[in-house]
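Contributing new records

If you add data, match the layout below exactly. Sequence lines come first and carry their own label; structure lines follow with theirs. Keep one chain per record. Anything else will be rejected by the validation script.
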Amino acid sequence: MALTDIDRDQRAMMLSESARMSSAAEARFRVQSSSSEPRVVKVIALDVASEEVLRRLAERSWNHATFLSAATFGANPQDRLTDLYGRSRDLKEEVDAADLVVMVVTAGGNAQAAALIGSMCNLEPVNTAAFVSGTTTSSASEAAVSRTLAQLRPWSLMVVIADADDYIEDMLVALRA
């Protein structure tokens, strides 16, 4: 297909506009640095199996992500969270410091901690997201997965069923963790 004179003129005009936009005079109008600051993200395992997912993720390099566990609850509300080394962490302090709280639970896992974490996030307010991992590799029944989802939905702005741990990692990167 041959270029018409109009096509040539439009192409020449586009090239000259590109050249003009690349000039030093136009450079002062360009964004010089990213306005996307990393978020302070708290990633919380809700069950023992999802702790293993978080341990693998925590080995990677992150900007401002902290990996915690709510898989075993203590009697004292201050002791409900632990870091991946088993040290107690205060839920309110962790939520206060967060821009985003991400909860992770395995398919069919117990997500009851989501209610406490989600209600604390609602008070601050801090955005929440939840990932259900291992749905394709899990032997959990549809009913068990539905119970897990029912525990998450009221407390998370976004619930994602992630077939692979890589998907959770990719989402954390996209969320600027």
